[in-house]
Write a structure and sequence with these properties.
With 756 residues, the protein is α+β, with helices and mostly antiparallel strands. The chain folds into three domains: 220 residues, no CATH class; 268 residues, Alpha-Beta Complex (paralog of FGE (formylglycine-generating enzyme)), CATH 3.90.1580; 220 residues, Rossmann fold (3-Layer(aba) Sandwich). 30% of the residues lie in helices and 15% in strands. The chain contains 21 helices and 22 strands. The strands form six sheets. It has a seven-stranded mixed sheet. Helix 3 runs parallel beside helix 9, helix 5 packs parallel to helix 7 and helix 11 packs across helix 12. The radius of gyration is 29 Å and the shape is globular. The chain starts with 8 loop residues before the first helix and ends with a strand. About 2% of the residues have low confidence. Pathway: Amino-acid biosynthesis; ergothioneine biosynthesis. InterPro entries: CTDL_fold (IPR016187), DinB-like (IPR024775), OvoA_Nterm (IPR027577), SAM-dependent_MTases_sf (IPR029063), Sulfatase_Mod_Factor_Kinase (IPR051043), SUMF_dom (IPR005532), SUMF_sf (IPR042095). It holds the Pfam family FGE-sulfatase.
Length: 756
């Protein structure tokens, strides 16, 4: 007999909390703490006994009874999903990647959040079980693919959490029964009402239905079994006896043209459904025509990438993606199950609970790194530049009106069973993905514009203009706005409620699996010449690139030369502090792609950047709006520039203008910076002399920072004359990449002057 002292921590939990009732099909009388999943009893359960999602409530008319049904549906869906775990090991064994808690946490996490958020809103006065509400409150958002969680704590038993769930269920039902909704209020429920906290907790439950499904799909087959009440996988599938794609098993996936128009992002606050705070705000973007793939990328289509050695070719992967791939020794998608030796390329597919013959017409489930590598491979094969869709492009390919209404949000009109009848795989229409060419198409001929699988986006998760965190859950969105989470769009077969809505903007780290796949778009043909594009790429890398993006690794001997805009901004602020100059408005006369302007905006000041190149100003404007901007790096793929944080009370704007002739309409500034690492301005005299002679652009007593190659203080004194007083001079290194293995380091002569 094995001593418990030799067991791993999770094994000690499993032994301590062993429970025979977990080993087979659950006894409904014991397991279900709310409404049992029986036809005619539980909302969303069909005569077949399978449970599916109810429609997302319309908060302008939704009654108390409808909210209670919606809550019961979410609560029972959660318990049916967890009824698929077999034995204590399934609850306490951590995932093999160790990047998430064991399932016992997720079994109780949503329960604790009901209590905690109802307390925040004032609908509940006291904890129900303070210990469990602490232990089960915080999930995991690991920083990297190798950020291992040890999961070595002593977890509560399944029975203990189940009893806690029963008590919380009764409490929530009581709160729903005494909380006013639209018929009581005589108006729609809004985010200012206490009822919003109830809806928040229900939608949070539905988020974890989806994220828990991924963790269950990753588990050993021996630890799971599909409950009879859970929807079966789609029977619509094209399989082969060989485990390899064959003619007729892979749907054609050509591209279609999506007409360009205005994309208006952001959910109106008046729209009568629940939304997470990240959905609100606005952004307006004009898009040209673009091409999008007719279907999500299928398993059969992705098989070509696998068989062609796509996982063995570093040049197809970003630096971070290649590091992840090597660390995990990944050779094919996580849910593909090889049926022979490596190199045979024959596979079956793991669904949520089952292993089945590979459906070559279902969409492939991959992470963001895999999606980007596939796009690079397809670009190489077809001689076209494929990428993932931006958020604005995805809005257009969904074929929605510019200002959608309730009738345009299908999950507000149809439940899961009705969605299945229409061919839309949302709301658990099926218990798996389905064929990529089965759903009804948009007017342009696109399948699965909503549903089947989420689509990874080029864009990182970002706040829309006017974003405000909601006080009931202040840290839902804000911690993930740092550029480390990718947007996923469109919803998946298991997306219920708000997750399936047209307004859903959700996000995951690029190495993490979700029920997400690939939609390719074709990058619009560039109208700029190659030299201009290269110049912009170099500027973006110089101003925003990390050491890893420049050198391929963070510890390179020249890594200290990266980030010169931040260093110049610090010099400027230090000089202002020493001279006692208050900076409220600063102009950046050689802004290029805006790097120094954003560094200056790290303080609460107004910064205006000027450049005479439209492509550069457009890139800086896009960053200012919160978008990522891609750029090409020789030998490093296509990283993205991401806007640094802007201090509250400050702001950045950009103007198309010549450095030596700033428009008078810009007004007067307290500071001016001129930093041109590429020396494209060709000498200081032409654009610094107007500063010396002007009374209006830079105020008396204002500061001027000049950082140029071959521009010593002595030379500048001849240009500036008696109008400026030299405060300091130094040098600064600026680095950029010339090609795959050559770098250019430019010594900038840095001087700071005060206008007399």
């Amino acid at each position: 007999m094995t001593s418990t002292s030799t067991l791993e921590p999770w094994e000690r939990n499993a032994v301590k909390h062993s429970d025979e009732r977990l080993n087979g099909a659950r006894d409904p009388q014991w397991w279900y703490t709310g409404v049992r999943p029986e036809p005619g009893r539980c909302p969303g359960v069909a005569e077949s006994g399978e449970i599916r999602a109810l429609p997302l409530p319309d908060l302008s008319v939704c009654s108390r009874e409808e909210v209670l049904d919606y809550f019961d549906n979410a609560w029972t869906l959660h318990e049916v999903l967890f009824a698929g775990l077999k034995g204590a090991e399934a609850f306490y064994r951590p995932p093999d990647h160790n990047l998430r808690h064991p399932m016992i946490f997720y079994y109780g996490h949503t329960t604790a959040l009901y209590v905690n958020k109802l307390r925040v809103s004032g609908l509940l006065d006291a904890p129900i079980d303070a210990y469990l509400e602490h232990v089960l409150e915080m999930g995991v958002d690991e920083n990297s693919w190798d950020d291992m969680s040890k999961n070595d704590m002593v977890w509560p038993s399944v029975s203990e959490v189940k009893d806690y769930r029963a008590e919380v269920y009764r409490t929530v039902v009581g709160i729903i029964e005494r909380t006013p909704f639209a018929p009581d209020l005589g108006r729609p429920v809004t985010m200012d009402d206490q009822a919003w906290a109830l809806l928040l907790a229900i939608e949070h439950d539905r988020i974890h239905l989806e994220t828990s499904s991924v963790l269950i799909r990753e588990m050993r087959p021996s630890l799971v079994e599909r409950p009879a009440e859970w929807p079966a996988p789609s029977p619509l599938r094209r399989t082969t006896e060989t485990g390899k794609p064959e003619p007729g098993s892979v749907p054609a996936n050509d591209t279609v043209t999506v007409p360009g128009r205005t994309a208006r992002l952001g959910k109106p606050q008046s729209f009568p459904s629940y939304g997470w705070d990240s959905a609100y705000g606005s952004r307006r973007q004009e898009l040209p025509d673009f091409e999008a793939a007719r279907c999500l990328v299928s398993n059969g289509e992705f098989h070509g990438f696998v068989a062609d050695g796509g996982y063995r070719r570093p040049e197809l992967w970003s630096a971070e993606g290649e590091a992840w791939r090597r660390f995990r020794n990944t050779k094919w998608p996580r849910f593909w199950v090889p049926t022979g030796p490596t190199g045979l390329h024959a596979f079956r597919l793991r669904t949520l609970f089952d292993e089945i013959d590979m459906p070559w017409d279902w969409p492939v489930v991959v992470n963001y790194h895999e999606a980007k590598a596939f796009a690079a491979w397809r670009s190489e094969k077809d001689g076209r530049e494929y990428r993932l869709p931006t958020e604005a492009e995805y809005f257009l390919l969904r074929d929605l009106p510019e200002r959608p209404g309730v009738a345009d949000d299908v999950v507000m009109r149809l439940d899961g069973a009705q969605l299945r009848e229409t061919g839309i795989n949302l709301g658990l229409a099926w218990g798996s993905e389905g064929p990529v060419d089965h759903s009804p198409t948009t007017s342009q001929g696109l399948h699965d514009a909503g549903g089947n699988l989420w689509a990874w986006s080029e864009d990182t998760f970002n706040p829309l203009d006017g974003f405000t965190p909601h006080p009931y859950y202040e840290d839902f969105s804000v911690p993930s706005y740092g550029g480390q989470h990718q947007l996923i769009l469109g919803g998946a077969y298991i997306s219920t409620g708000e997750l399936g809505s047209i307004w859903a903007r959700h996000f995951y780290r690029p190495h993490f699996l979700q029920q997400a796949g690939i939609r390719l778009v074709v990058a619009p043909e560039s109208t700029e010449d190659g030299a201009a594009r290269t110049e912009l790429d170099r500027a973006l890398l110089s101003q925003y690139g990390t050491a890893e993006q420049v050198f391929g690794r963070a510890g390179h001997p020249l890594a200290t030369t990266v980030g010169h805009p931040d260093r110049l901004a610090r010099r400027f602020f230090e000089a202002a502090d020493e001279a006692g100059v208050e900076l409220r408005r600063v102009a950046d006369l050689a802004t290029a792609a805006g790097g120094l302007a954003f560094s200056l905006a790290g303080r609460p000041i107004e910064v205006v950047g000027l450049d005479d190149r439209p492509a550069f100003v457009a890139a800086a404007d896009r960053l200012a709006e919160g978008w990522d901007v891609g750029y090409r790096v020789p030998g490093r793929g296509e990283p993205h520039a991401r806007r640094p944080s802007i201090a509250p009370g400050g702001g950045v704007s950009f103007t198309l203008a010549e450095a030596g002739r700033p428009p008078a309409a810009l007004g007067t500034f307290d500071g001016v910076v001129v930093a041109d690492a590429f020396d494209r301005l060709g000498g200081a005299a032409g654009y610094l002399r107007p500063l010396a002679g002007s009374e209006n652009f830079l105020r008396t007593g204002g500061l001027l920072l000049v950082a140029l190659p071959r521009a010593s203080a002595a030379e500048l004194a001849n240009v500036l004359g008696e109008a400026f007083e030299l405060l300091s001079e130094d040098t600064e290194a600026s680095l950029t990449k010339a090609d795959g293995h050559r770098y250019e380091i430019t010594d900038l002569e840095v001087s700071v002057w005060r206008k007399r």
